[in-house]
Design brief:
The protein has 391 residues and is of the alpha+beta class. Helix content is 49%, strand content 11%. It has 17 helices and twelve strands. A hairpin with a 5-residue loop joins strand 4 and strand 5. The protein is elongated.
Amino acid sequence: MRGSKVEPVRQSAQFPKKFLDKNALRVVNTIHKAGFEVYLVGGCVRDLLLGLEPKDFDVATNAKPEQVHKLFKRSRVIGRRFRLVHVMFGARDFIEVATFRSGKVQTAKNGVIMRDNRYGKLEEDVVRRDFNMNALYYDVHKQEVIDYVGGLKDIEASEIHMIGDARVRFKEDPVRMIRAIRFSQKLNAELSNEIQDCIMEQAPLLSNISPARLYEECIKLFQNKYSFQVYEQLEHYGLLKHLFKQTHKDAFIKKACINTSQRIKQNKPVTPAFLFAVFLWQAQNNRFIHIKKKQRSFNLAMMQACDETIIQQIKQVSLPKYLTARIRDIWMMQSKLEKMHPKKVQFLLRHPRFRMGYDFLVLRSKSINPELKEAADFWTKVQEEPLGSHE
């Protein structure tokens, strides 16, 4: 399709106002009034067509990053591989604006995209996107969806197809493989045979991605309503070992993933620290058993096992220091909770990580450690008793 003039399908679409982000509309209207071409693009359009409320709204325009930046006082130009503009509406509330890209990219010897800052037209920008259903543009003012690649048909058929040669596209950006898995589970959509075959073949390419970038992707992978299904698919396609090589599926991981999904469905808070602590628990245990043979001190052996497990993990997926501190707290608290020492009850109840440590213990008792049911019941009961009753 590159270089060819294809007439797009244009489909009228009116979306519920409650699903359209007000800040995204402000950004679109401002760029439009300045005389530029501008659209909502990608996952937000896909989700709106499916009747889902989008989490993120992205904007695409023919305006250059510097031109967009001038239109918004609270904005910043970011990125090296591809320059973008973040229009800020709060500390963590921003709308991402991308300039149409041309089909030409600068790649490294291994095929990974290094630079993608050549700007182009809408029809060129389409082919730089990953999957057909993510390459839909919504003209807010004409209220129509623009489709160059058959994304509308894929949404209707619940199928995921790659734009272009999947082998080449995964080589350009291996993260597309785990995005494919996540979308297939989120949308209950079938991956094309080409995508399935290429992921099986090219899974090792995920090791070319920086640990820092993979951290953000892992949050998206597991903090959702379909966490365990994603886990199983990553394992099936050979991708999991390139994210968590120390992790092997057991009843604890299944229980924790399902619990995470249930909490999200109930609008309860979740933290990546908890799930990462679960994923690495068995590896930490194995290291502790090995270290304890040489190190007499229980606490020192535990601390060393924690550190070594985390060091191995951050070689694959970078974890912020605040997160690794929470993971250590959860692990170190387990032996204290297991002992149920009356004199330690109030001290542990006041610990800032008590709730995570307690939830961790409960899930262990309901999966891999049924012998801990007594301890789990004990800590459930003491939380219901008056403060100070164990002092």
